[in-house]
Fold each of these.
Amino acid sequence: MDLLEIKQIKKYFGGICALDDISFSVKRNEIFGIVGPNGAGKTTIFNLATGAYSISNGSIVFDGKIINGMRADQIIDLGVARTFQNIRLFKKLNAVDNIKAVLYHSASYNIFDALIRTNKYRKIEKIIDERAGALLKEMQLDKYSEMLSNNLSYGLQRKLEIARALALEPKLLLLDEPAAGMNPKEISEIINLIREVHSRFNLTTIIIEHHMSLINNLCSHIVVLNFGKKIAEGTADEIQKDPNVIEAYLGYPTHLKKEVDTYVRN
Amino acid sequence: MEYLKTILIIGSINVVAVIGLTIFTGFTGLFSLGHAAFIAIGAYGAGILTYFYHVPLFLAILFGSILAGFISLIIGYPTLKGNLSSDSLAVALLGFGEAIRVILENLKITQGARGLPGIHIYSTMPVIIVVVIISILVARNLINSKYGRRFVAIREDSMAAEMLGVPLFKTKYFSFFISALYCGLSGGLFAHYFGFIQPAMFTMEQSTQILASVVCGGIGSITGPIIATYIFVAIPEIFRFAKLWRLVFYGAALVLTMIFRPSGLMGYQEINFSRFFNKYNRFNNKIRS
Amino acid sequence: MLLQTIITGLGIGSIYVLMAVGYCLVFSILNFSNFAHGAVIMLGAYWGFLFCSMLGLPFVVSLIFAAIITGVISILNERLAYRSLRERNAPPLYLMITAMGVAIMLENLVYSTIGSNFYSYPKVFAKDYIEIFSATVGLIDIYSFIFSIICITFLHLFLTYAKNGIAIKAGVNDPVAVSLMGVDFNNLIRNVFFLSGIFAGIAGVFMGMRYMVYPQMGWITNKAYIAAVIGGLGNLPGAIVGGLLLGVIESFVSVYISSVVRDVFSFGLLIIILLVKPLGLFGKKIEEKV
């Protein structure tokens, strides 16, 4: 059974149709890509899958369960975690606290343990400390652990966001434009990072990206959106040759390419 | 010397309420102008028990605090459930504060606008000091636990917090409840120090005073607002002429803090003695060499 | 009795509308609650009293002067207290706290300087009444209602046809685009605050006439905030409906239940609306872009 099934979802914002009859499936342990021009509705899919927005039509099935209509924290319990297009770290907290803030989701002590600092509290706090430290170390962020997340460089902030999502121990990781704003060196670093993290944590990963180098390198299966509709699906090679995709990105149909080239040259 | 004692006592009574609002506003980031209502509930709850029913102080104050907490559960549900904007929430809590005052003015048992005179003066230094210390410790332990972390996550970015597993409503509700308990406790102490309470004492001005302590003392800090409270209490006492202008001063302090130093006196930090000692030692060593 | 209650309700409701509209104007463009609005209303009442009672100017003249002065006060308020925060892109919470600070400052400045005495306007039309279908209706209610209709109409015409007004409506929708189109955004804000201040002044004068003039009267504006929230924050027609609805309900509660618990009912109405329609009667659900 596929891990995530998007079935004929529609999403309206008032009168605007952001997603129109979108369907695709993501297999377990796959790295899946979602590409498309800006405004195509890519992030909206993430928002629907994580419970930020409600679906107008259709259904989303994760690990056999219907998740549209569930609350965000319920979906997280099932094993979905995400990063954000505009980095949404907890700015006034340092790096390790950003991770810890999320780890507390599974801390099982209660209020009385917290107030009198019982052994249970201490033990769990210690575990959380260790796990946060270990996670930062794996992502090579450990020397920044005390630094205010707002003061980290852009690339490091993106890394921290990924680390924070991983702290939720997800089965499915949703990365929203992880390479946005990065230079080529940083992009190749993050490609390696995503690949490593994907295998080490035994994840299924969905990536929204504009940098095709990242998509080509990582994704085995890609879906292309434009104006809320799915216009192509397949491997990286297949979609790059697809005339619909070329038309969407270039703005004119491919059969007119010769005419356009001549015009431009003159 | 009497001066100092008065400042310490009044300041400490206020500090308990300020810590409560710090949890709600400073750490959870939710703005309230109605918390004076909880102080009033605590004051009346405790005062009525000792005055009419001769209940021992400790139990009465506890009752006042729990009563305030209970009311907060009723009010918190409609106001926090719907994920209101901060403005709507502020207006709603403001309305709540006023509504409580009107109710208190019209209940028989509270003797209406005349108030309750003749409450025994039970709040003495040792009692207050004990309560303050316990309040601070409880708050500190709360903030440094998973509950505190959830509060802060909501303050920093409630949408991201929700997406990362923080249950928004439950956490806000809990924060509100705790802040109400603290304010109720403060009210009980207040009633038994002044010996007289009436609804007109618990107005939006009082709400603003605690808010000023929280904001100017520093968002995200416990020690900052504590210091600010004592300063705010001390200044009108030290400068007698300032008494009339005390509230003008609070208002100006709020405005100036927001414009020039929005994170307050000790925003996001606590007093860290080991840091001071380190700096002192380093300074000392520098001089000697 | 019923008719009288309704008309009285509309009378006080129209003052709420005037208060709420000024507050709503600022909210709709800057997305924060200007809690200093009540203090400006209070100042309007005092200035109106100065002109009318102490200088003996005719009523309408006093009203106009008071409104202009509060308009200017409102501009100063924005310039001194809010502008630096706005330019720093401070979160709305900071602006609200600042507004609260300004409100406390102004109220207590008046309290410390002028004193806590209650002043009352000369009986311009307080005692007069007319009879409609066997109901005794105070002239002041009629005047408040008519006046607020005139003001709202002017506002509507201004926003629809005047250059500055259209700019304001555009700015409400998209501040960035508006400044890119060459509109001086700071000027626009100044105009909004001036308008808001004028409404505050008029509301203050009517409020002062209806009741009394005293430093704490700014807190009555809480009703206006409640009216605005009921109508849907940032929604001008909503503010009108909210204000009138609040006034009428209060009137009914005062007459048929008890005038003392009136405020509790206002708050109760707010809670009910928040439970049923958290965005107010006319508010629209805007899903935050994640």
Amino acid sequence: MHEMSLAESVLQIIEDAARQQGFSRVRTVWLEVGQLACVEREALCFSFEQVAKESVADRARLEIVEVKGQGWCSHCGCHVPLPALYEPCPDCGNYQVKVTDGDQLRVRELEVE
Amino acid sequence: MCNTCGCGNGQALIAGQALRKSHKSGGAMRFRVPEGGAGHAQPEAGTHHHNLLDYGAGAAGAHAPGMSQSRMVRIERDILAKNNEYADGNRNYLAERGIFALNLVSSPGSGKTTLLVKTIKELHGALPLAVIEGDQQTENDAARIRATGAPALQINTGKGCHLDAHMVGQAMQRLDLQDDSLLMIENVGNLVCPAGFDLGEAHKVVILSVTEGEDKPLKYPDMFRAASLMLLNKCDLLPHLEFDADLAIAYARRINPDLKVIRISATSGEGVPELLDWIATGCRNAAARKQASKQEALIE
């Protein structure tokens, strides 16, 4: 349940931005969450709702933008889609695939007022 | 802090004392300056260009003085950025002192502490070392390490499920670490949460015991991906079990093709010399890098 820590980090980023940018309320938060990121989305949404209470982001809508997993197959020498860490290369069936994208966890942007 | 699971620093303790509050700023965030100047509606209705002050992008589509209007703020910041800043600080601190740090991760009950005690005993004081122990509660593990004569500090995470870089940074300051030494950090027994939290270590070492399932690497892939070394522990029990060690290793390498594996047993001592060699190499390299960067600094 590290999602609670992650939700707190999201709120910290929002509060830093609120101080620097001078906004007092957040309506929507867009999070970029990679398909391969070590996070449970439902738990993250629930946690964020809890930690955001009585903050600038109280009742803010959380929009999660999924980034597809991608890997480099050393056997085929090319990038391939990788929907899960344990999946093989869809072309050659080999497991020598290294993650190149889709493991990110980022706050992309905010709708504020 | 959290009533649900307690993650965060609220109940975390180092050697029984509360953590200091962090006063470090999160570093500069990048905000984009509006291309057409702040306060102007964007030419293309319905699109926003990630600007700070786009009054035209709100629900009303235009700005009127005094009217509440939302705007978009581009953030582009990693959620784990703050932890990673602390981790980088820890890594620099360790590098300057030539300290080789390992982050030991596994499920509860895989034999991390027993293996740690065995490793310390087998080193016979050949290498200065210190241990940071992470558990939700009790000082039992730190006491087990101290019984070997090695300095150890216990971090209690309260209800928290992992160590973070801020906790470890504070623990390092209290340990009075020696130059060119070994630091072993035993994380909270949890095969999920510690995977995402860099502590500033050189390597994560994942311990899988043969009394668990072979498919654990597939069930908990993040940790096996994050680790550089897997210790397949309790191998002395293999004759009594139906555990397929080759299959477990093959599963782990599906997740992480570069994963180094040592079959080990704290009871029989199998694999321990190989682990000691691996540690000694890491320590030599960390000390050599420290010397090299000192010399570079002198030349400059």
Amino acid sequence: MFEQIITLSLASMLQFGTPILIAALGGVITETSGVVNLALEGLMRMGGFFAIVGAYFSGDPWIGLLAGIVIGVIMGLLQAYICVTWRGDQIIYGVAINIFALGGMTYLLERIFNTTGHSPSVQSFSSGIALSLDTARWFLFTLLLLAFGGLIYWLFRRMRALKDKKPWVWLLVAGIVGIPSAFFLSSIQTLINIVWGAFDKQTIFVYFALVLPFLMHFLLFKTKWGLRIRSVGENPKAADTVGINIYLIRYLCVIAACILGAIAGAAMSIGQLDIFDNHMPAGKGFIALAAMIFGRWKPIPTLLAVLFFTLAGVAGDVIQMLSATFPGLQAIPRGWLGSFPYILTLLALAGFAGKAVAPAADGIPYEKGEK
Amino acid sequence: MLKRKFTYENLVDLMVPLVCILLGFIVGMILIAVAGKNPFGAYFALFQGAFGSLSNISEAVLKTSVLIFTGLSVGLAYRVGLFNIGAEGQFIIGGVSAAFIGHWVRLPAFLHIPLIFLFAMITSGIWALIAGWLKVSRGVHEVISTIMLNWVAYYLVENWLVVGPMAVQAPSGSTISEAGTPMIYPTAKLWRFVSDVPDLIGKIFVLIAIALVIFFIAYYALKRGTKIRGKALWFFSVITTAVVSAVSAVFVFQWQGGIPGVRMNIGIFFAIAAVVIIYFLLFRTVLGYEIRAIGFNNQAAKYAGINVKRNILLTMFLAGALSGLGGVLMVCGTEFRFPGVFPGGYGFDGIAMALIGQNSPFGILLASVLFGIIRGGSTAMQLPPYKIHKTFADIIQGSVVLFISAYYIIRYVLMLPRKRGEM
């Protein structure tokens, strides 16, 4: 019973959280470079719609994804041109795109598919990638190993006595502790079942979203380009002085964010479903922004923040499932459950936002030669 | 008195919103042309849809009056430096408060309507105050918190209150979710111009109102425009008033009421009054000065001894109250209940109104009139020869705001002729 509930809620967490996580990471990269992107909601809508259009006319979901990415690039160039080159107000731009996407996609939906509710169904990724129980076991093993490794790495970073040790010490400890315990845990049948149930038939977007935070962490904190991006977001004038091309960095980051926003939309339309529903994305772009703030503009904390929000998001489903066994839970109105993630977001922001510090130049256009 | 010099740059600043609107319309034209329709014909249909008949005009006026309130709400908050995206949620809260007082309290009309206004202003003001409080005491960015509050309001009101505790007891066979809350009492309804001017007393009140308005207009027009002063000024104003009132009396007493399609009501007067009040608040009072000072430079205002937190909270409360009044107009003027499917979106449109109107009360008024017309007329574009979906209005609105975000580009282009002249 509880195994089933955990499995189902994990599966729906992955589905619910994937677009939010991808969009939130888009927000992370653009705001790290100092450009606010309030248009994520609209971008998700556009990306989702054009992915459907591409898949509809080509019959291939990959072409659909490509169409979504292309629209992301176009919107990114537009935003960068207006907000970076011409120093337009970034918040107003975001509002404009959100309004435009709302009307424009409804209009196009009617022009192209002749409906107002949702598009016809297309070839999509929604059937997902099937896992066998054996694969699930190795998948669980890898996940656990990575988790142990990460935990030990974090411990090494935090504890003063261990901080200066060479990397091979860390690897050795991780191997000695991690491999046997991961092997032991991954042989528990219940855990295998849960992982199999959660990940079986999930789309490629889920895997993409789970890998992306770590890739972005690596990009932002371990590479030269990441240092440049962060310096442009924190102190553009200093970055300009040492010869970093601020406009180039901001252009790239804005375009990357718009692509991620569009992919997030595609993850909803050709990922979870095979249609474009006219209500998409129903505020998920804004939850993504909140998750980004809650994650303090950093990729891995953002991943945790998204997990937190998705937990709240699937709470409704879980309570519905539980109400079969506990009839008392049926008395909770639907509206309360619906508003729960948003109230939780507010509480989380109220409790933690004081510690969160945005990149110093976030939202401030940069003008060359400014005094 | 310091006389401001009117330069070419001032002219450009004034022109930018107009150019943005024009460009927005051109984008719309291109879209229609791409769809293979005649853009001029479609725009003609749009304006015919807005002005074609009395009921069409009244629909445009209704939309305008609600847009003014939500636009003012966003514009006022913008003046203190806050971006109130939560107008939609405050609008919903105002509407549901009106539906609550309208049905669950019985009072004579002259008490009922003020009570609704007061209650809705307080509830939606407090709703907005949550975001204000989070901003000043916890440092939560108001854009995020107001968006979250929108969704909370949406779920709590439309998925719980309206279908749960406040739902009408449905007769068997009909679905509750379509029904919404019960109808409000007639005493809570705002007067409609054409369909119900009920009795002699009502007609006399209308006449007195007309006479007062005409008198003030005539008095100020004569004072400003002519050199008549003293007793002659009064004399001429009274004469004008008497003549115009007599003419309108003929029409007023011939009103039999009963054009059911015409839903226009006195809400538009409240909206215009709100524009004037907000203008005076912002530009003629100490509070307004402080608000603008904070919006202009938060830190400087603080060091000048202005209580920044208190002003932000107060402004947020007022902004919420304004949005809430929009919801009141919707419930008490148009729908007469909180329907299961609430005609929302006005809060988001309010953002566009504030941006297009450059956050000045009269600019917001003009923007709301324009988009009230477009939204009123866009339903007519859905009819056969053009068949353009009514979200076309959103497209125009979105592109106008997009052009406004590209402010510097348009300014640069407009400044070009001047620069060439200097060279």
